[in-house]
Amino acid sequence: MRHLLSIGDLSKAEIEAILDRAESFAEVGRRDIKKVPTLRGRTVVTLFYESSTRTSSSFELAAKRLSADLVSVKAAGSSVDKGESLKDTVATLSAYEPAAIVIRHPHAGAAQLVANWADASVVNAGDGKHEHPSQALLDVYTLRRRLGSLEGKRIWIVGDVLHSRVARSNLIAFRTMGAELTVCGPPALIPRGLEQLGCAVTHSLDGLGEADVVYALRLQRERMRESFVPSLREYAAHFQIDSRRLGPRQLLMHPGPVNRGVELSGEAIDSPQSLIAEQVASGLVVPWSLLVIVVLVGLGVSALAGIYPARVAARQSIVTGLKGFE
Ligand code: MLT
After folding, report:
1. pTM to 2 decimal places
2. 100: CB partners within 8 A, 6+ apart
3. Any idea of the CA torsion for 128, 129, 130, 134, to the nearest 10 degrees?
4. What's the topology of domain 133-278?
């Protein structure tokens, strides 16, 4: 796994290996000094062409805690404003010889293009409506901590599935981990043929009581070129997860940012069933693990197999750093 472009590229065993490594970083996160030398001397670039709070800050903090040199570029305020193409921006940043590039872009397939152009390992932090594999990993991590295993667990994904890269990646990840999936939302916001991904589709919350986990999605109004719902009030009346609809034993998730009062009621967000804060916390340790693995594999070190041969002197420091926190 030199790049993380799509969650479908990972087997169940590979997902488990990434999450197991994240567990060991969680231990580092509880120390007074939350820093390890694993990526010392390496450069990590974060390149964000779309707004982000959680994903960008979590990868930035992860790179810093791994002692990497961080170059953080937001399209707004960079040469992109002056018309520089993605390819030229990547060529410019490649001059710093980054070990990893974490990219978010409004166009599906952008991360794959960057992987074709750059020598660095590439992590897809969201490409248009296509995929958000790091979100899927942190959600599986969060659920694994709570439930032990996702095998046979019933997960409902509710809301604007059509515009959601999170829904696409999470459906694949949850299914890979053995969960039973139901997708729910108004017909206009559910892509046709979704059943082929191995999930049930419904347009009503009537059967929600069977769910072990309710995963709500944001109405992505910035991606809507037409009106997909009659009104927010009507959408909320039919699809909002509120304390009336959420049972005491059900777990509630949302990738954030939340439209409070639209897809979730304030009470549901703040309820004991809500894992939203835990998802944000997982959003720190999973990027640590991902950055280490893609960089090691990019350097030719078989991280997933747990083999760290110091084949060339240039690789020695990173391997030593890895042993340092295990
Ligand atoms: C995303 O970037 O896709 C977010 O994590 C989810 C959202 O924007 O609703």
Report:
1. 0.90
2. 42, 44, 45, 63, 68, 120, 121, 122, 123, 291, 294, 295, 298
3. 80
4. Rossmann fold (3.40.50)
User: Nearest residue CA, atom 5 of ligand 1?
Assistant: 255
- Give the pLDDT score at 24: 86
Closest CA to 219 of 255, 180, 192: 255
The pLDDT of 103-115, averaged and rounded, is 95
255 lines ligand 1 (CB under 6 A): yes
Q: State the Cα angle at 154 between 150 and 156, rounded to 5°.
A: 115
Tokens 């017909």 locate to 187
Q: Where are the domains of the chain?
A: 7-131+279-325, 133-278
How far apart, in whole angstroms, are the C-alpha atoms of residue 110 and residue 119? 15
287 vs 244: CA distance, rounded Å: 35
| Ligand 1 proximity of 298 Cβ (cutoff 6 Å) | no
Residues 6 or more apart whose Cβ sits within 8 Å of residue 314: 299
Query: Quick check: 83 and 108 in contact, CB under 8 A?
Result: no
133-278 has the same fold as 7-131+279-325: yes
Q: Which atom of ligand 1 is nearest to the CA of 217?
A: 9
Handedness of CA 140, 146, 148, 153 (dihedral sign): negative
pLDDT tier at 225, thresholds 50, 70, 90: low
> In the chain, what percentage of residues exceed pLDDT 70?
91
Cβ–ligand 1 contact at 159 (below 6 Å): no
Distance from the CA of 29 to the center of ligand 1, in angstroms?
Answer: 25
133 lines ligand 1 (CB under 6 A): no
- Classify domain 7-131+279-325 by CATH number: 3.40.50.1370
